[in-house]
Amino acid sequence: MENGVQDMITIRANDDKRNYTWVDVRDVNREDLSVLTEEYSISSDLLADILDQDEQSRIERGDDYTSIIVRIPLDDEDQDSPLIQNAIPLGIILYKDKVITICQGDSVVLEDFSKRRFRQYPVATKEGFVLSILGRSALVFIRMLKYINRQKDIVEERLHDVVTNDEIIRLLDIQKSLVYLTTSLTTNESLLEKLSKTPIFKLNSEEEVDFLNDVITDNKQAIAMANIYSSILTGTMEAFSSILGNNMNIIMKRLTIISLALMFPTFITGFFGMNVRLPHQDKFFAWVFLLIICIFVSICGSLIVNNWDVSKHQLKKRKKKKDKN
């Protein structure tokens, strides 16, 4: 049950499920920092590290506590767009009779444990509670990766119809999101490896050992998924970049053909415009005759330039076939 709430500091007393008190601190403000420093004797340097958005996962031993920093999901797919900054550091400070968790924002992981939605996790001990947070985070990360992949597929379908700047920017946002997720999962993996070996984090039962192995497996699965999605997205963006470049080349080729086609009638009209006597200029339809000649020359010039380009392309294909044979 909850013993008390002070600003965003929630104290959850020990019960039949836990043998420790959980001090849950979220959306930290200046008043919370003062309380944490004065009443709980947490150093300002440690608080600064926990509240640093780019802080990596790690474990350290203090005089009478053990501090652990992990990366947890900022939110899940219920939000409009869990992209870009999708993971935040969570500080976990283990004392003899209590656990303090400190987070700059809020997370679905903390909300799940505060409402006891997952009773199958080994939260009876402080060490089991840490593993439970890491395990739940890995599963939420996997869910977020699947959501991000679905968003990527939607953007790709739109790009198949028409390529717009908004959709390209959306793909860049997805790519950034995957980078943040991969970084968070990788640093959590390093922490999990340390937890399995370090003497300052001792597991209390075989159940916790098995659960740690399961968490490591889930985290590695999430890393593999993130790498696969990143590779696919990179290939997709390169393919669309090539398509855009090819379309630009086609447009430039057409403009060149049009420019060359217009060059011939411009030359003719320019020549006769320099005080040069126009044949049959006294006749009424002389200008019509000249116009027909200009159009004919333009068409012939366009066909010659276009056929020359097509012939050049066909010669390249034949040469490639000969090289293969």
Automatic annotation (TrEMBL):
Alphabetized GO MF terms:
metal ion transmembrane transporter activity
- Which CDD domains does this chain map to? EcCorA_ZntB-like_u2
- Give the bilayer topology: Multi-pass membrane protein
A Pfam family it matches:
CorA
Query: Main localization of the protein?
Result: membrane
Q: Where in the cell is it found?
A: Membrane
Question: What GO CC terms are in its UniProt record?
Answer: membrane
Report whether Transmembrane shows up as a keyword of the record. Answer: yes
* Family named by the database record: Belongs to the CorA metal ion transporter (MIT) (TC 1.A.35) family.
What is the protein's name according to its record?
Magnesium transporter CorA family protein
Which organism is this entry from? Answer: Bullifex porci
